[in-house]
Amino acid sequence: MEDKDAPDPGSEFASGSSWTLAGADSDGVNYFLDRESSILSEFGWNLNPDQADGLGRFGDMERIERTDFTGDCGGSQGTGSAPAASNPGGSVDLSTSNPSVSSSSSEDQTEKSTAGSGVKPPQIPSKVRKKGQKRIRQPRFAFMTKSEVDHLEDGYRWRKYGQKAVKNSPFPRSYYRCTNSKCTVKKRVERSSEDPTIVITTYEGQHCHHTVGFPRGGFSSHEAGFAGQLTPAISQFYYPGAHFQREILPSITQPQHVPVREVVQSHSLPGPTTQLATDNGLLGDIVPPGMRNT
DNA sequence: CGTGTTTGACCAGCGC
DNA sequence: GCGCTGGTCAAACACG
């Protein structure tokens, strides 16, 4: 992954913030280490704004989300000003890359009805669909969170649709899909094999709806507000274009009113830091050169 | 009964 | 071409 446009591992994600870019995999997925969430309460995440500067940080993200979130489910996530419309290669076609999860599509319905007619019918529809065309992945965004719980609440409801043992890791990887029938966002959750206390959450796609709150309870509106915006905001980090450069970058680089108190070990970082997070550097961390407008 | 989880099987992509 | 691995499906099951 080092031969690609991978960001510089270990670069500070944002000055004064607690996000640290931990690296990127070969698919161009950026990994961020969330320092704040390493502050764990006995109930799980400690999102208390009084203890973390995350409130201000994600307050910014929320603002960004409102700016970019004009697309609607079903109308494709690339509608309006949704940054997905201008993806890196211009090749991320949501309808193609995620056909099986577009429950609103007739294709999916066909697939389901076919499957329901037999005991164990072959998955021919998907097979035919994918034949001749590569599985195009949506932009993904991963971040590492120090947490005792695997599945972190982020304001959205997720349905688990699979779990797999991962090679070179004693911990299984869980696959989740947004329960919103029109939303194609997926996420993978796995623990780091190097540091079991770190949960690696990878989001794929972009929510086309707002948060649903925390139906299971346990979070205040404050916290829900934070976590609820986390996913879409983070997803959009990965998208190219002016939205990131104009809107997100400035806001996330603003100094926070509460200094970071905790230093997180970066042993999970795949490589040495070779570049500081200057404006360009930070941009280069997240947006490959080919994705930049200028 | 609705919703979510578990789990074995299947499939595609990729490296050798 | 073959085997490995990741990703997904879907029936069965659990739970409130």
UniProtKB/TrEMBL annotation:
Residues 127-138 have a biased composition (Basic residues). Gene3D superfamilies: WRKY domain (2.20.25.80). Keywords: DNA-binding, Nucleus, Transcription, Transcription regulation. GO terms for cellular component: nucleus. Residues 147-212 form the WRKY domain. Its main location: nucleus. SUPFAM superfamilies: WRKY DNA-binding domain. It holds the Pfam family WRKY. Coiled coil: none annotated. One of its GO terms (molecular function) is DNA-binding transcription factor activity. The keyword Signal does not apply. Residues 59-69 have a biased composition (Basic and acidic residues). It comes from the Eukaryota. Residues 91-107 have a biased composition (Low complexity). SMART domains: WRKY (SM00774). It is found in: Nucleus. Residues 1-25, 42-138 are annotated as: Disordered. This is WRKY domain-containing protein. It comes from Rubroshorea leprosula.
